């Protein structure tokens, strides 16, 4: 059988547009010779719809979209379609919705396969919304017996995972079933909305290859692509032969359709993007989709002359085009002479509009206003943060006037330690590099310069500084980033203890505890931050949940 894997980029809740696109793509798949077009999980609604599932109107639109897709298969030009959607649940007591895969052909529904394993870790919260399936069935199409699974249902193979989350293995149960005439499944199909994080593409491929080898059948995955708020979906759909070799590979971070034959030989080569390339593509896609899916067209970036804001501007230009990005320089009396020069050179390299709005007079005015109350105190954090907040005020004023979204420029190292200012440099609509460690920022900056100098060499080479007081350097407040980042990664992403980190990284325990204290004290800031584009296995946001008013100190 010739099968098309069609990875689409849906907008959550845009049922009409999503369904139109699905049907157009199905017709294209038919023109490519496909007998079956396979689409991702929740194709018509987009994933994750979150509390929209609680709305009766949302479920009604999902049902109407399903009817459209089924009816479209009456057209001889449209192949059979397998797609994900959500349906109401009639079970009581129980949840109000079901996450299902629907196979339809010739204007009829051939199978509704309900998802069994509902993830409830990291960014996933499907047990909040969906009724879990109990049993699943095989289905025959054009002489092939299909084992159809939905995302997580294929992620619990005891032969691959050392530590499983669920006692049940839906794939194992499906592969043990037989049709009425005694045939077993000849292929495993998985429809997914599997978010990206660095390294996950390789894990997916290895995991499904293990399934193919274990059960001796081809395996195919159709995965969602696109950015939905913080979550980034890489697509990278693929098919495997029964020996676990790649038979078809779709592109990463782009919509794509690939057709493969279940009897096809392996591809000669099917490479995945390197880590830094994947990070770049994910962030570009995330910016583009966040801006466009929220109904905006342009963005603002405060350009300090530093590497973080330069990287954000470069990503924004690739995502939206230079005409839709504006850089704003806001020097104070503490800004170095090269800061505005570096920012201006960056803007010239990117071809974006650049405006300079000095904050010195505004800071002096605020200083005079506060002077009676601050009498007898020394210049310190309040005055430093006041400068950052004045910049936030200016950016938000320009945003209001011209309808451009503000992109924040803080990295993950700063967000971890609270080395950022609420209502200042944290003000904005999207934290583009909030899941990028400072040391990783440099890798991405070099990648931005892969063909020509975009980010000026001086921006990359100069020591990092917030420039909020004379001679300030980041190392005045934090350990060097090559020391800090591995420490933070161990604590923030892997939840390692201070003692373990100190021993493993050969650091003084006192220094480790000081950094951890910064992380703990800054939770209130992170919970007020703009949405963070997720590119690691543990990012700030819904996948990392800690109380603010807590005193747990191991």
What does this structure look like?
With 554 residues, the chain is α/β, with parallel strands linked by helices. It has two domains: 2-271, Carbon-nitrogen hydrolase (Nitrilase/N-carbamoyl-D-aminoacid amidohydrolase), CATH 3.60.110.10; 280-474 and 522-526, HUPs (Rossmann fold). It contains 16 helices and 19 strands. It has helices at residues 15-31, 56-72, 170-176, 200-215, 275-293, 307-320, 337-350, 360-374, 381-402, 412-417, 438-448, 457-461, 481-493, 498-505, 509-521, 523-526; strands at 2-7, 36-38, 80-88, 97-105, 108-114, 139-141, 144-150, 187-192, 219-223, 225-228, 231-234, 238-240, 246-249, 256-261, 299-302, 325-329, 353-356, 405-408, 430-431. Strands 5-4-3-2-1-14 form a six-stranded mixed sheet, covered by helices on one side. The chain has a six-stranded mixed sheet with strand order 6-7-8-9-12-13, with helices on one face. Strands 17-16-15-18-19 form a five-stranded parallel sheet, sandwiched between helices. Helix 13 (481-493) packs across helix 15. The radius of gyration is 26 Å and the shape is elongated. The chain starts with a strand and ends in a 28-residue tail after the last helix.
């Amino acid at each position: 059988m010739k099968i098309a894997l069609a990875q689409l980029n849906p907008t959550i809740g845009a049922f009409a547009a999503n369904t139109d696109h699905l049907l157009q793509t199905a017709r294209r798949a038919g023109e490519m010779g496909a007998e079956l077009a396979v689409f991702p999980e929740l194709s018509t609604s987009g994933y994750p719809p979150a509390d929209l599932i609680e709305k009766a109107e949302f479920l009604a639109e999902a049902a109407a979209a399903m009817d459209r897709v089924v009816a479209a298969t009456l057209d001889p030009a449209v192949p059979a379609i397998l797609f994900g959607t959500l349906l109401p649940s009639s079970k009581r007591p129980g949840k109000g919705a079901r996450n299902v895969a629907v196979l339809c052909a010739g204007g009829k529904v051939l199978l509704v396969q309900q998802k069994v394993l509902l993830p409830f870790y990291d960014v996933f919260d499907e047990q909040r919304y969906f009724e879990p399936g109990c049993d699943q069935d095989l289905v025959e199409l054009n002489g092939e017996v299909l084992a159809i699974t939905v995302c997580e249902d294929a992620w619990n193979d005891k032969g691959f995972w050392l530590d499983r989350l669920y006692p049940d293995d839906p794939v194992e149960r499906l592969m043990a079933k037989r049709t009425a005439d005694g045939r077993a499944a000849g292929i495993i199909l998985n429809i997914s909305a599997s978010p990206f994080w660095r390294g996950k593409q390789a894990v997916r491929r290895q995991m499904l290859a293990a399934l193919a080898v274990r059960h001796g059948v081809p395996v195919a995955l159709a995965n969602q692509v696109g950015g939905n708020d913080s979550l980034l979906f890489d697509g990278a759909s693929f098919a495997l032969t029964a020996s676990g070799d790649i038979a078809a590979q779709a592109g990463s971070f782009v919509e794509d359709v690939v057709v493969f034959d279940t009897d096809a030989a392996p591809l000669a080569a099917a490479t995945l993007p390197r880590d830094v390339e994947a990070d770049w593509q994910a962030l570009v896609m995330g910016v583009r989709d966040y801006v466009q899916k929220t109904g905006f067209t342009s963005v603002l970036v405060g350009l300090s002359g530093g590497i973080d804001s330069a990287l954000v501007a470069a990503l924004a230009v690739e995502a939206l085009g230079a005409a839709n990005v504006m850089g704003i320089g806001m020097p104070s009396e503490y800004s170095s002479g090269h800061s505005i020069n570096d920012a201006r050179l960056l803007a010239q390299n990117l071809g974006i509009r650049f405006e300079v709005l000095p904050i010195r007079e505004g800071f002096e005015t605020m200083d005079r206003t506060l002077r009676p109350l601050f009498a007898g105190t020394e210049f310190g954090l309040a005055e430093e943060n006041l400068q950052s907040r004045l910049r936030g005020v200016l950016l938000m004023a320009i945003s209001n006037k011209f309808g451009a979204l503000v992109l924040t420029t803080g990295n993950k190292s700063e967000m971890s330690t609270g080395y950022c200012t609420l209502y200042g440099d944290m003000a904005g609509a999207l934290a583009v590099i909030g899941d990028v460690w400072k040391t990783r920022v440099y890798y991405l900056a070099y990648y931005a310069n892969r063909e020509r100098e975009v980010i000026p060499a001086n921006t990359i080479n100069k020591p990092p500084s917030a420039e909020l007081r004379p001679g300030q350097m980041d190392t005045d407040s934090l350990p060097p980033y090559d020391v800090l980042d591995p420490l933070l990664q161990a604590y923030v992403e892997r939840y390692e203890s201070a003692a373990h980190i100190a021993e493993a990284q050969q650091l003084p325990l006192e220094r480790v505890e000081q950094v951890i204290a910064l992380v703990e004290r800054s939770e209130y800031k992170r919970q007020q931050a703009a949405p963070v584009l997720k590119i690691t296995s543990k990012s700030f946001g819904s996948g990392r949940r800690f109380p603010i008013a807590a005193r747990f100190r191991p």
